[in-house]
Design goal:
Distance between the termini: 51 Å
Strand content: 5-15%
Order of helices and strands: HHEHHHEHHHHHHHEHEEEEHH
Radius of gyration: 21 Å
Organism: Parnassius mnemosyne
Catalytic activity: a phosphate monoester + H2O = an alcohol + phosphate
InterPro entries: Acid_Pase_AS, His_Pase_clade-2, His_PPase_superfam, Histidine_acid_phosphatase
Oligomer: single chain
Number of helices: 15
Protein name: Venom acid phosphatase Acph-1
Pfam family, one: His_Phos_2
Structural class: alpha/beta
Largest sheet: 7 strands, mixed
Number of strands: 7
Shape: globular
Amino acid sequence: MFRYLVLFYFVGQLHHTQGNAINNDVVNDKQLLLAFVVNRHGERTPDADELSLSNEQEKLKELTSIEGLEGLTNLGKRTAFQIGKFIRQRYGSEGLKLLSNIYLQDEISLRSTNKERTKMTAEVAMAGLYPPEAAQQWDDGLGKVWQPVPYTAVPLAEDYLRYYSNCKKFKQLMEKAKKESIHNEFAEFSDLIPTLKTETGRNFTENPLLFQTINDLFRSQVALGLGVPQWAKPLLTRLSEASRLAYRLYYKTDEMKKIGGGVLLNDFISAANEIIAGKTVTKRFRLYSAHDFNIGALMDVTKVVNSEQILPEYGSLFAIELYKSKSNGEFTVMPVYLPKAGESEAQYLHFTGCENNNYCNYKHFADISKKYLLPEKEFYRICNIKTEL
């Protein structure tokens, strides 16, 4: 019973920004021209850092012997499938008509980080997006239920989506942020430090990101049926609060935000400008199978209102969409957030300066976010990454 109570607790910690209904007349006047969508992978097993904090390491290893560390669980696969179904519902022929019911290579690009859990999430999501129709059924068995869809993944050391692990400049900024925060943001949690050191053997004052690590560990343990250790039960609420602060350290400064989300923003603006100029642009639906840090970074550089209150869960999704008005030709951008594929409805957020309208004038959107633009080649220069990409 406690397992389900803790699951309810963790779900309750997620911030659900109020979604706004959009009038049908407005929807019918808008034509969707471009969508950049970033999803977080499905549920996974603990990683090595999380495992090191657990006093149930042997049990966790037994429970995850099939998937291994950081592996996508069966629950995570089901969540990934729901991501694909949501994309089909929203962007397919029954929705905003940006995608066909069959896979067409000129309509969609799919990129994943080079992690098993994100690559598997991408593959399963595509199974939910493209159940094969007659024209693409390639076999009387598997070919009737599965359509292969290609994705791109680059080495982790060269991937701008993995900025927090491969960018030396970002790591330097993070070290500074951690040192400053332990005496500021995390001061209110100083009374937890002795208990955490006793139970985990780690000094959280040396690395406040451990608050997020241990929170993620408990989520994985609960999902695997192991539950939360007795000593941690009275501390769950405060540990969750500290975890949110740790997550926000990745976006503490404008420079950190730019490194984290600037390349995606730059690619969106570049594609949007070409479309507005009347140029031919293919692959107008672009999906990135990635991580919570990618969703958070893109939210921050696009100036989503109250983005700091959103903590992306497994199976969450954030999209920026470009529209053209059929009546007056105005180009607008709208931010969309799905808290949990298969369990929640899409929420229409707001950009700064457009608090009273989900659809934000494109020029205004480009102006408020331009300081975060980061061409991919410039990312490699700033981060001192040598690449031939």
